[in-house]
Amino acid sequence: MSPSRRRWRQLLGDTVVITGLGVFVIWTLAPIVWMILSSFLFQRALITKPPNLSADSFTLKNFQKVFEASDALINAFTNSAIIAGGTTLIALALGSAAAYALARLQVPAGNRIALMVLATQMFPGIVIIIPLFIVLTRFKLIDTHVGMMAVHLSFVLPIVIWILKGFFEAIPRDLERAAAVDGATTFQTFRLVVLPISLPPLFASAVFAFIESWNDFLFAVIMTRMNTKTVPILISEFQGNYQTAFGQMLAAATLASLPVIIIAIIFRRYILLGFSEGAIKG
Amino acid sequence: MLPALLVLIAVVLYPIGRSIVLSFQRVEAKGGRFEYTWTWLDNYRALFRDEAVSIALRNSLYFTALDVLATVGIALTVALLLNHRFGRAGIFRIVLLIPWALAPVANGVLWKWILHGNYGVLNAVLKELGLIDTYVNWLGEPSLALRMMLLADVWKSVPFIALLLLAGLQNIPGYLYRAAKLDGATLLQQFRFVTLPALRTPIAIAVVLQSIWSFKVFDLIFVLTKGGPGDGTLMLNFLAYRVTFNFLDFGYGAAIANLIFGIMFVLAIIFIRLIKPGAPRSRTA
Q1: How many separate domains does chain B show?
Q2: What is the CATH number of the domain that holds B278?
Q3: Once rounded to an integer, what is the mean pLDDT over residues A140-153?
C-alpha cells in the first residue's frame, strides 16, 4: 500500500469514528436536552407546530407552578431521600459483612450462597411483592418508610453484596495475614484493615444502591399511598393529572431526575469502578 | 453474614415460597383481611385459557428479542467507538451515565412527550425534514406503540450494556492487535478474529442480563400506554400487576408471576453458568 493511500484510509477511518461519536452523543443527549428545554418553555410555545424556540418563549413559570401546586413535591423528595438513604445504609451495613464472609471465610456452602444472592437479583419484583404486600398489610406496614425500606432491600442488598464480594476477593490476603500475625481477630481485621482500604468500593455500591432505590417504581406504586409517595410516583401522577400542562409535567420529571443524574456524574469514578469490578468479573 | 442472610430470607426467599403457595389458592380480601381457599391447579389451568396471557406472552417475547438484539448491537458499536483513541475522553462516559441514571418513570414521561401525537418533537422534526406529510399518532396504534416502546427502552438500556462491553474491550491485551497487524490482518479481520472472540463472555452476559431486564419492563408500560391500545403493549409483568392489584385476584396474579419467574429462572441459570462465580481467579486466568 502506498503511503498516500494509507493516509487516505487513516483519514477515512478517523472521519467514520468522529461521525459515529457525534451521532452517539446526539442520540443519547437529544431526548434529555429536549426534556429540560421543554420544562423552560411556555405552554403556547410548546403547542406551536413546530415548537417556538424564540427567546421570549422561555420562562421559569413551570417550575414555580410545580412547587406551588402543593407540598407534594417537597414531601416526595423527603420520602425518597429517607427511603433511598435508609435502604442504602442498611444494605451497606449488612452487605459489607456478608460480602466479606463470602469472599474470605470458609463459609460452608459459601459458593452456593453467593449464587443464590446473585440469583435473587434476577427474580421479577412482582413475584416478591405480591406476598410481601399481604404480609406487610397484616403488620400495618403498607405506606410506611420501614415497609418501603424492607421491600427495597430485596433488590438492593443483593447488588451491594455482589459488588463488594468482587472487591474483597481482589484484596491481597497478605494484608490480612499480617494483621493476623499481630493478633487481630477476624472482626478487627475487617474493621481496621479491610474496611479503610475498601472505601471506594463501599462508595460504589452505595451509589448503585441509592440510585436503584430512588428510581424504583413497581414496588412504590404498590406499597405507597398518601404518606410515603416517592418522587417517581409523583411524576407518574403529574403526567396523569396534568396531561395538558406539558411544561409542568416535564419540569417535574426534570426535578425528579436531577438528584440521581448529579450523583451519577459526581461519583462517576466509583460507578465505573463498580462496572469493571463487580458487574463483570463477578 | 447472618443478619444479611436473615433479611434476604425474609424479603426474598419467603416471598418466593409464599408466592408459589398463593398460586394454588384463591385469595379474597374481605374488610382488610385475606381469606384463602385451596384451588390447586385452577389458576394454572386458567392461565392457558386466558387470552390476555397469550397476548402478553407474545408481546413480551417479541419485545425482549428485539430489545436485546438492538441494545446489544448498538451498545457494541458505542463501546468500540469509546475504545478508539478519539473516544477515550471522560466526557463520553459521562454522556453514557445520564440515561442510565435517569429514573425509568422520567424516561417514560420524556418519551411520552417526544412521541406526542399533536405536539411531539419527533413529529415536528420528521415533518421539517420532509420524511412524513402528516403527524403520526405514535402511541395510538398497537404494533406501532410497541415499537415506540422498544425505542424508548433501547435508548435507556444501551449505556449500561455499552459500559459492560467497554470494560471487556479494555481487557483485551494490545499485543494481540499488534500481532494481528504484523500478520497483515485488516481492521475487519482484527475485529472478527481478535475482538469478537475476546468479547464472547461479556457479550453473552450482556444478552442474558438484557433479556432479564427487557422481560421485566414495567415502568415504561405504566407511563406510556398502560398496556393499550387494545392490549397492544400488554406484557406479562404488567398483566401480573393488573390482575393482582387492580382486579385484586392475588392467587391468579401469583400464578402469572410464577410463569415470569420460571422463564427468568432459566435465563438466570444461563447467566450464572456464564460467569462461573466463586471459581478461584488463578485457575480461571
Answers
A1: 1
A2: 1.10.3720.10
A3: 94
Model pLDDT, residue A168: 83
Whole-number CA gyration radius for chain A: 24
Contact criterion met (CB < 8 Å) for A17 and B84? yes
Residue A232 has pLDDT above 80, yes or no: yes
Cross-chain residue pair B163–A272, CB shorter than 8 Å: yes
∠ at Cα B131 (B127, B132), nearest 5°? Answer: 60
User: How far A113 CA sits from the closest chain B CA (Å)?
Assistant: 9
CB pairs under 8 A between A and B: 278
User: A257: nearest CA in chain B?
Assistant: B102
Res A276: pLDDT: 63
Q: Are A128 and B37 in contact (CB under 8 A)?
A: no
In angstroms, the CA B103 to CA A256 distance is 8
CA distance B135 to B119: 9
Cα–Cα distance, A252 to A237 (Å, whole number):
10
B34 belongs to a structural domain: no
Q: Which residue of A has its CA nearest to B216?
A: A124
Cα B260 from Cα B237, distance rounded (Å): 7
| 8 Å CB contact of A280 and B16 | no
| Residue B261 included in any domain | yes
Q: Among partner residues B3, B202, B261, which is closest to A127 by beta-carbon distance? A: B261
Q: Nearest to residue A151, comparing CAs of A175, A170, A168, A135?
A: A135
- Eight-state DSSP code of residue B32: T
B5 touches chain A (CB under 8 A): yes
pLDDT at res. A30 = 94
Asked if residue B165 is part of any domain, the answer here is: yes
Q: Does A266 or B29 have the greater pLDDT score? A: A266
Percent share of chain B, pLDDT over 70: 95
Q: Which domain range does residue B61 map to? A: 52-107+142-284
Separation in Å, CA of A16 to nearest CA in chain B: 10
Dihedral of CA atoms B150, B151, B156, B157 in degrees, nearest 10, equals 50
Report how far residue A211's alpha carbon sits from residue B101's, in angstroms, rounded to the nearest whole number: 7
The C-alpha atoms of residue A128 and residue A246 are separated, in whole angstroms, by: 35
CA distance B98 to chain A (A): 6
- pLDDT per residue over A198-211, tens digit each? 888 888 889 889 99
CA dist B149 and A176 (Å) reads 51
In a domain, B18, yes or no: no
Residue A143 DSSP code: T
CA distances from A277 to A257, A280, B274 (A): 26, 6, 16
Closest listed residue to residue A148, CA positions, set A71, A63, A69, A233: A233
Q: What are phi and psi of B37, to 5 degrees?
A: -125, 140
Quick: pLDDT tens for B82-121. Answer: 998 888 888 898 898 899 999 999 999 999 999 998 888 9
In angstroms, the CA A184 to CA B140 distance is: 67
pTM: 0.89
Q: How many CA atoms lie within 13 A of B129 on its CB side?
A: 8
